[in-house]
Sequence to fold (711 residues):
Amino acid sequence: MLTITRRATAPASLSSLVHRGTLAVLAVLGLSAAPAFADEGMWTYDNPPLKLLKERYGFEPSQAWLDHLRLSSVRINDGGSGSFVSADGLLLTNHHVALGQLSKVSTAERDYVKGGFLAPTRQDEIPCPDLEINVLEVMQDVTARVQAAASAAGDDTSKQLAARKAEIAKIQKETKDSTGRDCQVVTLYQGGEYWLYGYKKFTDVRIAFAPEFQAAFFGGDPDNFTFPRYCVDMTLFRVYENGQPYHPAHYLKWNSAGANADDLVFVSGHPGNTERLSTLAQLELARDVLLPLQLQSLQRRHASLERYAGHGEEQARQANDQIFSIENTVKALTGRLQGLQDAKLMAKKAADEKDFRAKVAAKPEWAQAYGSAWDTIAQAQDKLRSRANESTLWSVGRSGSRLATHAVRIVQYVAEVAKPDGERLPGYHDAELESTRMAMFSPAPIYPEMETALLADWFAFQKENLPAGDPFVAAVLDGKTPEEAARAVVGGSKVGDPEFRKSLVEGGATAVADSKDPFIALARRVDPLLRQMFKWREDEVESKTTAAGEKIGAARFAVYGKSVSPDATFTLRLSYGTVRGYPYNSTLAPPKTTMFGLFERSAQFDDKSPFDLAPRWKAAEKALDLSTPMDFVCTTDIIGGNSGSPVVNRAGELVGLVFDGNIESLVGDYVYDEASNRTVAVHSAGMTEAMVKIYGAGTLVEELLGANRGG
Fold:
């Protein structure tokens, strides 16, 4: 699964995953016959790969084609992507992208995750409590303005960083005030470019259809990040504006025949983060310290949630969203770590960096302007390495506790909004406040006993991994044991009530300072330490790497131009490739799977979990055309955050829905190999067949095909 998430734990068979991941890395490094760049690239829409497409596939999309696909694509703030697929605002994404919202609207009596949902009429569609959708409408290069502000601040990198951030906040506010759009200044090429992205935002989003979890995630964790797959990992939202279904000017035509082998296809989505352009020093720190610590902490959280889920069916329902996300993410993080632990991959990265630096050093003017940047970043990474535990563990939000996130956000909000916009912490700039308030006042349910379990385990983890006398541990425990501290703040708090949260924010700094709520008191105790750590990271790490990154970005343009796409930033990108199988396990993976394969795979495991068929599927077997394609693979370059991205053909028609990558793609943060790296997508023919013959969603299918439009 390819959503963005920071929750993970160890898979059931880590040793086998390590083995497979290592083989994947070796395959990447051993296959040198692939064409240069091949289908690699997550391209920004201002710099689409027109030349590469024309040379390799004889296809050059028009500007109108690109604009239509861009404006049909959406970013989903739960960590994924999606697309408009009807004239009445139907929005297609993955079930696992929608999982958080499905969980939030479920109850003990009606579990929409387990049982699925189909709205009989539009009036029955279920509003999402806190979902935000963004459509990229405007792109503007603001590099000169941001870099000029930094240059005017002199040689002090801390002052440069403050000037950059102030100018970025100013640009975002000016644009929001003048256009009404939500705005984000995006850093590309390590600071070589800064682009202003203006978004149309929607917050009235309702659930129209979702299959049951077992059909969406057939095969469970064992099949995750593998192929062949047999999942119908889809959900349909409907977007509303002013209380009425939104009528987008751009939406994707649904092609129910879907993709075929060797077809040229495109993915338009929001990949979260890659580090293909990072320096060797940055990769080494991630390998040695940051990724292992993240995995360790998430393993602990998984164990805590599993214990909580073991108390009963209702506790399991409450915890399943986080457990699923953890089990999904650990495979991705483990694959990344294995890539960095592979000597050949790191040797290749070292050789690439050495070659790049040599080209810079060969020209005196380049050497003078850019040559010191790599050493500056290495020194900053050494600083971060020295305080990595504190930098990571000085947090309450990383516990997974929603109460903790709300409490800290309230304390910070009332302090930040009193400051000039350019001096505020991230998330509290004027251009961001509407989204921050939406999250802060979300009516989504919070489960106190689960919160207590998560916090108690996180406090214990902090105590075990930070030195004796650590001020953050002292602040959170307040003289108590981890269990006592967790029960004290959760049991006596009203932070779970959105109206209470709203009253504190509206009461401002005085109300927050006077509050006797134990969770607010905890947030007040840790807030100075969080700010201290944030300032240290700004001064000692971020300011140095940002200034040096701009130099490396400029050097990259000087040496290579823009022949390589920038690293992913959870902003809209275009990738391309073909529907194609690949070699694995000494045989071949097919380009597609069919419904025949689903029923066969279930039978091979005697219909036992996680390979058991959902009851609706068993009942519909005779009605189905079992030759219908279910899932397929293609060579498009994707990463976490691309979940829910549309797959379109040359005509710009929707032929599939991205939901995963194969195991060989897990090193995609650092390298791409066309021979084995694959996107895994749900086939549009399979979605159509299932909606009509299994779920009784024929009315929605008519709408998708353009035969039914209502108000």
